[in-house]
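Researcher: Next entry: Signal recognition particle subunit SRP68 (Pycnoporus cinnabarinus).
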Amino acid sequence: MSGKSQIHFQALQIANEQRNVYGLRYNDYERYRMTYGRGREFKKLPPINLDNIKDGHLQLLLFEAERAWAHSQEMYQESLKLANAAKAAKGAAAEDAQKKSSSNRKHATRRMRRAIHWATQLLSHCQALYAQGRLSAEDLAQVTAYTLILNGRFLRQRFDFEDALVQLCVARNLLDSLAAAASTSREQALAVAFADEIGPEIRHCAHELRRDKAYDIDALVSEVAPRHRNALVQDCDALLAQLGKESGGVAEERGKLKPMLWEGEPVPIRSPELVDVLLKVQEAEKLVQGRKSEDKTTDAPAAGEKKGRGPRGARSKRGGVASYDAILLALSEAEDVSRKLAEAQKLSGTTAAAGTRDMQFVHAYIVYQLLSMRVQRDLLLMSTLLHQLHVAQKSQSGGGKSRRVQVDARLYPAIVKLLDSVLQSLEQMRTLTIVDESPDLASAVEARLAFTKARRCYHLAWCYAPLKKYAETLTLIQHASLHLRECRSMLEGMIETDPINKGEPAFYPLTIEDLDKLEEELALDSAAFKNDWFAFNGGSLDAESSKTHKKPLFFDIAVNYISLDMDRLQERAGKAPAKVEATPAPSAASQQAPEKKTTAPKAKLEEVERAATPEPSSQPRSGLGSLLGGWWGRK
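Model: Predicted structure:
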């Protein structure tokens, strides 16, 4: 090497990044092929000297190859459209379309040859740098695979399927070796992405050659590649051996993505972009797990400390809630990336090989993980609020548990709002394809939906209880009992095979004991609310009935036949007038004067006789009228 700088050139990584950024994800070749701009003249690249070559010179060659290849693909697609239009048209229009199609196809062939020219020139420079020790085996393997892919596609377009199959199989073999020797999950996903891209082309060539098991790409590669790779690639075996030595089996743990499983089978992550965001999810998940382990140790009472006394448990729960922000942010980013990849795969019309999981499945899996984390976060928030309620119950009841405590009026509405969020997440989770395809998982999600609805009705009932709306309160208690009965019927048949309880992690554990506990609380509160309602207004639906006095039934009729002692009734009702205290006896002199004054008017009153009150004249009425009149207080 003697003073010459080392060059690091990742051809596949650069090509993948540029394609994703500039429209090739959606097969927009016109946008991807880089032009020189308006009013600019084409300037030929100066000759490159190996003594002063840099990675920028190699990037220019790669971009020239990419531009020519994209232009070729654009012309080729246009020729196919014109060929189809020629078949549908007739006469002169068909001939004109056919001529344009042939012209575009020739133009595409010329541009493809130009792309191969630039790629071959790039490969020759890289081989020279590798011989000088300035380029790694991994970088040379990437450039070699890139050149073989362009050659194979060009031969396939010219219907030379035999040679195209050989070129593509050797390229696939190199990509598999790169994936096996990758030190990070991103590098592995990069190699796998390019291998998946040429997989359908290998299958098409084998099908055109009438090969047996043309669908088995791995078998075709293992059969064809070892026989031809040394002929196509200079010292290919030595290059692969050097590639294995450079990797050395040493991988960076921070860059390695843990395997993700669904129903015992791995979830394929074949996109470098997705690997980057899932690595962030993995790091955030470690923080959540660490916080959970801290909560377990914090919840245990320390020496000399009574359990549940201090606010340590509340503080740890709030810290656990904050730790979910990072993982939810990372999962939201992963969901956005996977959704875009799934849309691009759908628009391009590419499908995964038989028996493999495509990007649609990966997107559904990430959405499921996102929703499960949201449910965990909301349940942790709710347990924090309920912890405050239990502390208030114990403090106001002197260590026991009282169901009638003074709490913040915003407590129960906040719990109901959290349960609404849990319901929304579970309902969205139930619509996922991966959940719908698993009967046990679908039943488990529905059971938790019913249980959450029961808890929501129960806490919503406590929102109405302080307002003395006992009819609404008891109605919600009855709805909660119905949802709880529905949940019990679904959970009893699958308590041993519940996939959510056995999942990693179990984001919403649910057992029969939880149902029994909620059912007991519903029964106790229902009886308490009924007693409160009866004491409030006798169980009447009219809330104003306790404020106004109502006459008993048949009160008017009873008054017509019974003389009521109103003084006695007022005394029994506690409304009798207060008794006047006795005054000291007056003197004899003071008694004589009032007696003289009061005797005269008393005599006058005895002499005056009041005329009797005349009876109301009763007019003759029919028999039915006289009978019904008594019911309404008339004689």
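Model: Note for the record: The domain at 11-36+47-248 is CATH 1.10.3450.40 (Hyaluronidase domain-like).
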